Amino acid sequence: STGRLGGLNNSESGGVADAKNLRVKLVLLGDSGVGKSCIVLRFVRGQFDPTSKVTIGASFLSQTIALQDSTTVKFEIWDTAGQERYAALAPLYYRGAAVAVIVYDITSPETFNKAQYWVKELQKHGSPDIVMALVGNKADLEEKREVPTHDGIDYAEKNGMFFIETSAKTADNINQLFEEIAKRLPRPSSS
Ligand code: GDP
């Protein structure tokens, strides 16, 4: 990944056809059980189905969204599919990624700590212009919350990340997550 646009314009990430139709590799990171697969399935298929995890992982799922300026963004979404344990494989996985979505569970401070580990890892080894989103998932479990919203906001602000709380279960903020990421992508020049 040597180009100025990093993960956006090189062949590792699938390349970009033109300024109006972006194609980006997006990786999901975070502890097992925080809801990564459920977020993807909610976004791509519009459903909440915790049992269909086995169907992803072999390859990526993709989903295209249109922005108001008529740009389209095709996300090629890579889920770790349970490979969180093999930290040594992580650099292969996020290589060429234009976007990293780092997920924790708002009911679990341990997963928030782990999210911070992944942010540092990406700051060290990821593409320099990677767009990072910090996601506090399971926001429907407010009564079990153990990570205050402002902790997420503060950490994200300090690290130049976009922050949002989501629920894959209720679909709250799932589309917004991807729309906000799309808006933050560096655009290739149309010359
Ligand atoms: P992954 O290991 O990070 O991919 O996590 P999964 O997507 O497999 O989800 C782990 C568990 O969390 C499943 O039992 C889901 O039903 C549950 N889960 C995922 N997202 C949510 C959510 O937004 N709210 C609630 N209440 N449960 C969720």
Strand fraction: 15-25%
Ends: how far apart? 21 Å
Instruction: Please summarize the sheet with the most strands.
Output: 6 strands, mixed
Q: Provide the low-confidence segments as ranges.
A: 1-15
Main sheet: strand order: 2-3-1-4-5-6
Total DSSP E strands: 6
Question: Can you count the helices?
Answer: 5
Organism: Populus euphratica (Euphrates poplar)
InterPro entries: P-loop_NTPase (IPR027417), Small_GTP-bd (IPR005225), Small_GTPase (IPR001806)
Protein name: Ras-related protein RABF1
GO molecular function: GTP binding; GTPase activity
Report on the architecture of this protein.
By secondary structure, this protein is of the alpha/beta class. It is built from five helices and six strands; from the N terminus they run βαββαβαβαβα. The protein has a six-stranded mixed beta sheet, sandwiched between helices. Helix 3 links the parallel strand 4 and strand 5. The radius of gyration is 16 Å and the shape is globular. The two termini are 21 Å apart. The N terminus is likely disordered. It comes from Populus euphratica. One of its GO terms (molecular function) is GTPase activity. It holds the Pfam family Ras.
Task: Give a short synopsis of this structure.
The chain is an alpha/beta fold. It has five helices and six strands.
How are the SSEs placed, and which strands pair?
Elements lengths: L20 E9 L6 H10 L15 E6 L5 E7 L11 H5 L4 E7 L3 H17 L5 E7 L11 H10 L3 E4 L8 H11 L7
Parallel strand pairs: 1-3, 1-4, 4-5, 5-6
Antiparallel strand pairs: 2-3
Guanosine-5'-diphosphate binds next to α1.
